[in-house]
Design brief:
The chain is 74% helix and 0% strand. The chain has 3 helices and no strands.
Length: 93
């Protein structure tokens, strides 16, 4: 397989032309990179928003689970108080 020839320019060549006022002020490659950066920034914003919504839902679920646990504890303690002899058996007959 033959290697394709590539014009090698130093990384600062675009900056030099822009600083000296020569060359194309908006290089097509820089424009593409800028557009891609915009897409990435929007995606990150959407991910952060989704993460906040998920965190809010988890917090609400934790509150409901805490309430349910408290109710179960109450029912369990009421059941134990109604049948005091059963709690003393402890597996012995």
């Amino acid at each position: 397989m033959k290697a394709m020839p590539v014009a090698k320019e130093p990384p600062w060549s675009h900056t030099r032309f822009l600083l000296l006022g020569g060359g194309d002020p908006v290089d097509p490659q820089i424009g593409v990179l800028d557009a891609n950066l915009g897409h990435v920034q929007r995606d990150v914003s959407e991910i952060k928003s989704d993460q906040r919504r998920a965190a809010d839902k988890l917090d609400a679920m934790n509150e409901r689970l805490d309430t349910l646990r408290d109710k179960l504890d109450l029912v369990g303690s009421e059941a134990n108080s109604c049948t005091p002899g059963l709690s003393n058996l402890g597996g012995r007959r």
